[in-house]
């Protein structure tokens, strides 16, 4: 099993770098926190020791314990936990979900989408095929886009972090706001903003590093995918020279005629039309001369 030091060296050779892993882990933490805050119903909660018309409320779920619509002549009381878009609240939708609450819901959804997109894009960087296809054309711009997305997520979190507690204390939304407090779902969402900013900073540093220094790991991966693997010491195959058979049964290479061979040595001569060709043939160590006339 490879040690931690060996694994770190392998990551550096592959080209991710420590900044990438810091950004990737921070973006995952931000996504998990945003998702938990998105799905949980504990953004705003009442103290358990006192009675309040509001039990707890989230982005999509609300629990009431005797809430009455302001200035309702029928004095209808709402009790129980419901999906916030349920038809049970059809007559009081504008009171349960005022305009500011719907804006908060929209921003939370956008924050979740931005985090999902960023984590997906950073995950592609771990796969060599996607990495070369989507990042290599302009890796500096790709990491800069991821950095901007995480900063946008941080801005969305800041908007919700300021807007929700300011309007949640409005007594026209829930009576006796001094009996209620911001709960852990809101805290998770705010905490996700810090991880988003840390991820954005790390991605920005990674993009500037790529802009000034090429990624050697990616260049090595490209070579592995483009060139076949050859054993050590072997050169790539080369095309053979031009070959044409001659009329006298020999062969010609590059314009020269190579005649037939005999025992001991091969005879080579340059033949021409209308001239005599002479060659020396040796057999068993004795030299003989042969002449041919055309």
Give an overview of the whole structure.
With 294 residues, the chain is an alpha+beta fold. The protein has a domain at 7-42 and 97-174 and 184-226: Butyryl-CoA Dehydrogenase, subunit A, domain 3, CATH 1.20.140. 48% of the residues lie in helices and 18% in strands. The chain contains eight helices and eleven strands. It has helices at residues 4-14, 17-39, 93-96, 99-124, 128-135, 139-168, 184-212, 216-226; strands at residues 44-46, 54-57, 61-68, 77-83, 180-182, 243-245, 251-253, 256-261, 266-268, 277-283, 286-292. The protein has a five-stranded antiparallel β-sheet with strand order 4-3-2-1-5. A four-stranded antiparallel β-sheet has the order 6-7-8-9, with no helix packed on it. Helix 2 runs antiparallel to helix 4 and helix 6 runs antiparallel to helix 7 (184-212). The longest helix has 30 residues, at 139-168. The protein is elongated, with a radius of gyration of 40 Å. Residues 1-14 and 252-294 have low confidence and may be disordered. It holds the Pfam family Claudin_2. Residues 236-256, 274-294 are annotated as: Disordered. Keywords: Membrane, Transmembrane, Transmembrane helix. It is found in: Membrane. The chain crosses the membrane at residues 20-44, 103-127, 148-166, 186-205.
């Amino acid at each position: 099993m490879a040690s931690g030091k060996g694994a770190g060296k392998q990551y550096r050779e592959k080209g991710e770098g420590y900044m990438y892993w810091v950004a990737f882990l921070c973006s995952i933490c931000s996504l998990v926190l945003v998702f938990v805050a998105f799905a949980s119903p504990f953004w705003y909660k009442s103290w358990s020791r006192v009675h309040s018309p509001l039990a707890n409320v989230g982005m999509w779920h609300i629990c009431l314990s005797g809430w009455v619509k302001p200035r309702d002549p029928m004095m209808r009381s709402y009790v129980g936990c419901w999906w916030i878009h349920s038809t049970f609240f059809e007559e009081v939708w504008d009171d349960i979900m005022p305009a500011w609450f719907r804006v908060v819901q929209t921003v939370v959804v956008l924050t979740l989408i931005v985090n999902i997109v960023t984590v997906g894009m950073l995950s592609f960087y771990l796969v060599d095929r996607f990495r070369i296809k989507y990042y290599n054309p302009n890796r500096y711009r790709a990491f800069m886009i991821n950095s901007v997305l995480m900063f946008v997520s941080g801005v969305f979190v800041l908007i919700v972090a300021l807007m929700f507690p300011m309007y949640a204390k409005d007594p026209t939304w829930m009576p006796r706001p001094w009996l209620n407090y911001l709960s852990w779902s809101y805290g998770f969402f705010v905490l996700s903003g810090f991880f988003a900013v840390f991820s954005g900073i790390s991605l920005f540093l990674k993009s500037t590093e790529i802009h000034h220094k090429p990624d050697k790991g990616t260049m090595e991966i490209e070579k592995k995918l483009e060139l076949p693997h050859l054993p050590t010491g072997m050169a790539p195959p080369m095309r053979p020279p031009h070959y044409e058979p001659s009329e006298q049964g020999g062969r010609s290479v590059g314009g020269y005629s190579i005649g037939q061979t005999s025992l001991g040595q091969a005879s080579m001569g340059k033949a021409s039309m209308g001239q005599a060709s002479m060659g020396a043939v040796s057999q068993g160590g004795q030299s003989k001369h042969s002449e041919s006339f055309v």
